[in-house]
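User: Run a structure prediction on this.
Assistant: Running it now.
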Amino acid sequence: MSSSKITVAGVRSQVQSVLDHCNDPSHKRNFVETVELQISLKNYDPQRDKRFSGTITLPHVARPNMTVCVLADQFDLDRAKHTGLPSMSVEDLTKLNKNKKLVKKLAKKYHAFVCSETLLAKIPRLLGPGLSKAGKFPTKIGHADDLNAVLVQVRSTIKFQMRKDTCLGVVVGNVGMTQEELTSNILLAINYLVSLLKKGYQNVGGLVIKSTMSPPKRIL
């Protein structure tokens, strides 16, 4: 199976179908639906083949409403407070006492975490492996970094992780985006996924896009 079966025009057309469905007054929701790329793999044995994992930053923010918590030193605590972001100090993290249930609860509470560069190395000692196990190990932020730019990066970054199943799903955008923005996010996500696969497109059984409430649209 070659990449020639996926065309920009074909993806663009299916993206428009999803957007048309969501913008139809009879289908209007009182929330912004996310758009997911769903992948089924073939000729891939999760038990025997090497499990892959990788992250990529998309050209457009995929999840603008993603909740992000700042694990912060005093400098970044002040910045987070000024920006209206949830944050936790070293003292707050120490109070969790590496309690697995409490760390798991913290990991579930937020979609992602950013962490002051001065604290990053201490996170495993303060929290144990909980955030890593949840696939939410924090993104580093330095004092010289623009906090808003880091948030944009985090909300634009997606992760492919092969587990025990041969079906994957990643959020690549939302229905508030334009057709072109969604199309470019989807194409980059597909190309990156294929680069992670042992046999490239020969490992791709099917590709589907759908919004939270729309019917699926096949692009491969």
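DSSP finds eight helices and ten strands in the chain.
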